[in-house]
Amino acid sequence: MKEIIDKNQLLECLEQFGLNPIFSEEVKRKMSLYHFQQGEILCLKGEEIQHMYFLVKGKVKIFTTSPEGKTLIVRFKTPLAVIGDIEYVKRTEVFNTVEAVSEGLVIGVHFAELRGMETNQIDFLKFLLAIVTEKFYTESHATSLNMLYPVDIRLASYLLSLSTEREGSLFLQ
After folding, report:
1. What fold is seen in the domain 2-161?
2. Phi/psi class of residue 84: alpha, beta or left (left: φ > 0; alpha: ψ in -120 to 50)?
3. pLDDT of residue 172 exceeding 50
4. Is the pTM higher than 0.85?
C-alpha cells in the first residue's frame, strides 16, 4: 500500500462515513490514508498487524487457506468495512488473508493510538462493538445459508458476490 499525504482527503473520508465522532482529534492527526492496487494483499493470514484499517473505497476479498492449500472465500467487503478489528481486540495474528479485488483506499490507524484513547472515547468502543456484532451476525447468517440451502442457490449467491461495485454485474445475459 502507498500512503497518500492529503489530510483534506482523509478528513473528507472520515466525514463521508460518519467516523469523526468516534476518534479523538489527536488520533485523527495520526491517521494515514493508503491507496492499494487490485490484487494487493492488505493482510496475510498468520502475520502480525499493527494497524486497524477502514475501507473507504474499493472492494476486498477475505479468505483463508487450509494447510492442504485449499482456499475458502469467507466474504467480500465494500465500504465501510473494518479490517483488523478482531486482531486488535484479541491481540492476535491475522486470522484471514485480505486481498484487494479492485483498487481502493483505506484509512489506517496504529493499534497503540487506539489503545491510548480506549478509556476516554466511549463512541469508539460502541462503534467497535457494533462492527464486531455485525460480523458475528453476518457469519451466523452465512452459516445458516450454507446449511439450509441447496448448492445451486449457494453458487448463485457466490456468483453475485463477485460483481464489482463500480461495474455492476460481471455476468452477461
Report:
1. Jelly Rolls (2.60.120)
2. left
3. no
4. no
